[in-house]
Design goal:
128 residues; 3 helices
Length: 128
């Protein structure tokens, strides 16, 4: 029985030439190539040992300033401002409803029907 080799060792190619691979990414390269077509690694001047030391030039990362904890005064200002904003929103919604045309008309009609003026409302009709 005849056995055929379907796989070849990594260092042999048909024709007896050794395989060339990029030491950075492992992509096959031709023997005369200067740079790897896949990753751009300089095949002529750099060695694998030198490449690992200078592979990626380190870019300085910007230093983040450390946060200082908020002081009690800052917290009080924050809470106070939040409460004021919340109250303004609540009173704005209430006032928008209370002084709307429909609500004002309802109050006037109620005054005319009952003849009573409640304490929190100004008199609309002055009795003679």
């Amino acid at each position: 029985m005849h056995h055929t080799r379907f796989t070849l060792p990594a260092d042999n190619q048909p024709g007896g030439q050794p395989n060339q691979f990029c030491p950075n990414c492992g992509h096959p390269v031709a023997e005369g190539d200067t740079f790897c077509e896949n990753c751009g690694y300089n095949l002529k001047t750099a060695t694998p040992e030198a490449h690992t030391a200078t592979a990626q030039p380190k870019t300085p990362t910007p230093q983040r300033s450390q946060r200082r904890p908020m002081t009690k005064k800052t917290k009080r200002w924050g809470w106070g401002l939040s409460i004021i904003i919340l109250l303004l929103v609540i009173f704005g919604i209430w006032g928008n409803h209370y002084y709307s045309r429909q609500a004002t008309l309802n109050r006037v009609v109620t005054h005319l029907r009952t003849g009573k003026i409640s304490q929190h409302q100004s008199p609309l009709i002055v009795p003679l």
